[in-house]
Amino acid sequence: MKSSITKLTGRSIRSFFGRYLALLMIIALSVGLFAGLKITKPAMAHTAGKYFDEQNFYDFQIISVTGFSGSDVETFGSIEGVSRAEGSRELDALIETGDTIAAYKLVAMPSYINMPSVVSGRMPEAANECVVDDEAFTEEDIGTVLTVSPDNSDTVAYGLTETEYTIVGLVNSPLYLNDDRGTTMLSGGAPAGFIYIMEECFAGDVYTSIYVTVDEKEEVYSDEYDELIDLYEPEITDAAETITDKYYVLTRDENAGYLSFEGDTSIISGIANIFPVFFVLISMMVCITTMGRMVEEERTQIGVLKAMGFSDGSVMWKYMLYALSATAIGWAAGFFLGTWGLPAIFWWAYGSLYDFAKISYVFSPLLAFETLAVALIGITGSTLIACSREFRSVPARLIRPRTAKKGKRIFLEKISFIWKRLSFLHKVSIRNMFRYKQRLVMLLLGVSCCAALVVTAFGIRDSMIDLGELQYEEIQQYDLEVSYIAGYEDRVQSAIDGLPGENHTLAASTERVRLTGGETMRSVQMLRFDTEDVSGFWNFRNGEEELAFPEEGEALIGRKVAEKLDLNIGDTVEIQDSDFNAIQVEVSGIFDNYIDNYVVLSSATGADSLGQWESNTIYLSTNQDTHSVSEELMGISEVSGISFVEDSKESIDEAMECLDYIIWLLLIFSGALAFIVIYNLTNINLAERSREIATVQVLGFYPKETESYVLRENLILSLIAAVIGMPLGTLFHHVVMDKILIDNMYFPEKITFASYVISLICTVLFAIVVNLFMKRRVNKIPMAESLKAVE
Amino acid sequence: MSEFIKFSHVSKIYKTGEVSIPALTDVSFGVEKGEICVILGSSGAGKTTLLNMLGGMDTVTSGEIWLDGKNVAALSKRKLVEYRRHDVGFVFQFYNLIPNLTALENVEIAAMLCENHIPAEKALELVGLSDRASNFPAQLSGGEQQRVAIARALAKNPRLLLCDEPTGALDYETGKSVLKLLSQLGREKNTTVLIITHNQAIAPMADRVLRIKSGRIESCICNSNPVSIDNIEW
Lengths: 791, 234
Fold this sequence. Notes:
Chain A is α+β, with helices and mostly antiparallel strands. Among the domains of chain A are: 58-260, no CATH class; 469-655, no CATH class. In chain A, helix 13 (437-465) packs antiparallel against helix 19 and helix 13 packs across helix 21 (703-739).
């Protein structure tokens, strides 16, 4: 008995192949999107993790002003649980290539930790060979000779044993995951790139820093990894203390590339949390209508089978088999295409920022099980719902055709001053809209979701795209940040005073501190000023309101860290510096700040606990070329670094450009969603109303009139849905932005008016395209056949 | 008097894959203007095919169909729509009213297509259903629905009224009243009416009786003395 039912299933699939395919596709699409988006962030993290593992990325970096000896390295190596400790040597030097000269970071080729990976060419084998930064050089540069410039200081001249290096390969380094190459004392600003040379090319035997790896391994960017680091940190710190009193222990979190990789990819998890849910919801609706339609079309067959003595179960099995086979194929195709394709697409989108390795395929058995279970439950449920209605009827009733859905007046007809004004055919369309409530709801829901997703996509862009401008033009209004050894303000200031052009300065004391509020702690940048007037350099405001400079014992804090620590105005917060000196201050204001986290104090605050105010930073606004200014100031030996606001802005802008690809991806998916929903519903509509459509054709409707008779309601509903989608999208956008968890960035939640307009247009355009597609089908309905005696 | 409708060697072959099924073979006949013509034949004889081709709903395989000097078989798709729109009124066995429109609206939708239409209210009045104007089809009996369908066909003021088994789904008395209505209205407006039926008994009411068997014309007989439907029993 089962086998004849199986045969019938096969026949149903063949005779309605388009419908079977549509069912299969929607399952594939939603499973693919769900699984693909969910796996993208883990896949990217895994790719980075694998790369870090292969290159033996450090767990701790210990830096000392005085440097380390070989025995210092051994001290760390002998700590229990430490797998390896390796001394590292670095030197910034001016390098000549052909007729250009630029500052590069020269790094000794490590033997184990932080190994660079070869992109092309080979590793250096002799003292006069080098491998270079893949970002700064191209394959054509292999074979070129780099010369250490004679303009270099004595430190460089005596620090290197060779002056000429032939490029033998291009490499990536785990230390420089993104395009941030750190800062250099030379030539002002950032080095042009890094160059690895053999260790013996460095004169002397002093290491600039020590890298340490521990035995235990944990998934990168996981809480477990953070716990592991917390576990080892005291021992490392103790060891460092026995060697020198001037040291820093840094973790991976202090590595710019490592940190920004997590931030830049976290937008995906925001999207992954909301988009797939709607796809699953909508595809479930599509399944219910598709199966419902199928069961209804075959009700005669169901009646006959039941009359012949087949049990409900075995007849239902036919539909189950139909649906389950579509689910199985759809799931398999969707899951593997999604989990393979989406991470690859995102990786490609991020390629301009991170291209250190090929994306690895991550198979998550849990995710596979979850998606399969949801798909199966969804489809089984939909089929049961669809079947139950028909199966309750006795065979005799099933064999007779279902009576057509009765016509009904709608509410609007009672408002006669509107109703009267409508043309006859518009009245018909409006009444039809309300005739099939289920379809009305589904079309509204599907298309408004689509519109909402488009709004969300554009909203994400709106909220992020001008982050650099907001931070580096409106808040940090200066051009250069000059850091120097505390106490040398006069020296730097007088050098600035000697510069040509107009230069304005503001001195500050800056330090990395821990901010604790309640149970939560965050590392933030503390700024202390001995003047209340910081205008022109820093702009502390809350929306339109300009914030008053904090009094003694008060602090202004940035919006993101205020949110993270759940702080409001009037709350008390603890600041602790690197020497464990602590002070309690009252929050007097929360200011708009988008990148990094700051706490702002007056110089009077904490004079007795944090130490007497002494500036170590000068913010400089200049009308001169920033690079030439920087070059001048770098000549002062007490100046330890200069950073360019312009550069920071550029690098953030570059990261945000990746967003455009993501927006496109979301637009394509939203379009597909609208297409599937409208196509599916219109198809059912056409099938159910073929008699009616044939009738108006016989009456002499022109093709255009027939099309609009059937499809006008789609367009009206799509338009209404698109409008509903606008507030819905605002809500989605809020949820997505809320899920983007980056500690050192604050995204202002905003959607521009233009985005709403574009989203509305996009959605209506999607609807129009589907309708154009459906028009052909409307006119293909065969008149004579549709009007034949009832099936 | 020249013939209003003229079929000339019309054949229709339905092709499904490899199989060809002839529905009509070499059909030739004529009907004069204002006549009521009954087409008789058993089921599958090709009656409906003939009517559909005359009504511009189906194409011929070969042959010509002339209506008042116009070859319907040679019309373009666009012209066929115009032809259906202005010249033809259809009445079907299963009424084919639009369920979501009231009786009046079902007539309106047809009336609005033609310039010189009969107002929908007037058409409903003609079939005696003015009082049911605001009812939906589901609220009407079979006979009432068929009368609405007739009103819809008449409202276009067609030159040709084609009825495919108009009484097929109706009981005896209702069927009779519908036929009476059709013949009465046809004669009043001098509209040519073609009625398909398999009920031999109603043949005497027609001006002309066409018998079809297996796709061929068996006979085409003029009845110079049609009987009123009231005097026919079956």
